Amino acid sequence: MTFLLLVLLAGPASAIQIEARDGPCPVGSGTVRVYQKISSNAAGGYDSDLASYSSGGQWRAYQIATCADNLFSLRGQDFLSLTTADRARLTAALPAAVRGVADPKAPTIWERYHVAAALYATLGKDRVFLGDLLLEASWAARDEAVGFYAGLEGPEAARVLLDAGWEELKKPLAEVDRKKVLYNLARVAHRGGWNGERDALLTAFETAGTLTAQEKDALARFRRIALVVEPGLQDEVIAHYSAALATALPASEKARVTYQLADLLRRRGNVTDAAPLYAAVRKDEDASDQLRGMAAYFVNARR
Fold first, then answer.
1. Per the confidence metrics, is the pTM higher than 0.70?
2. Each residue of 242-285: pLDDT tens digit?
3. What residues contact 53, with CB distance under 8 A and at least 6 apart?
């Protein structure tokens, strides 16, 4: 089976299941649709920054409920727990929270997460909570850039697939097949956080032949999210996590935040500051086996 086929096949798995209900918005006079997750799966694997993937849809696409008339946004599960005092504080904070939304009639999913983060800050949520929420926003943006891609179980698996892809590209492929391989490899590189390799693959895709209108749109969306949207969110997460690690955190949470900070720094091109954090997690007995294994991979990686 060729690499081209391997990257396009996905194993069978049940799709994410959700329930929806409509109700009054806690702020203002409009209504809001709130979703509840019933079940999901992990068939899509996970990325080095712990972004996990379910086949048939991602819960993060539904987690934030947004009132259509004023863009008031929180996790749906938190709508019913707001007190009268909370509502008053959030009403006052809402105009500033939504100021950065480019098109209030069609906010992006990451803009809605951003509004939610501002409102949660008003409620006094801590730095880890805010960092986690904005990291999910960056994953939601990544979903729009690269879509669902089955079977990538962390950075080592992504690296194996990329290396196999480069070998495939040495073959005399038809133009349409070469473009598919290049674009799929760019998706894998992006999920793995190898930005230079991703950019080289996208450039090769762009110059591999005449692009269709659909391919041009996909390329433009990929680049806009990968070069502008995700990095901006990641920088905010880095600030939150860095501040959180300057405080006392439970041991397992400290290990997790340290690892994710390392990976975000690497993804932002700051391998110098990422390296000692990876090394610390590799030796941390409070870190999970998954975190220690991925940290060890990056400590030992030559790329």
1. yes
2. 999 999 999 999 999 999 999 999 999 999 999 999 999 999 99
3. 42, 43, 44, 45, 46, 148, 149, 150, 152
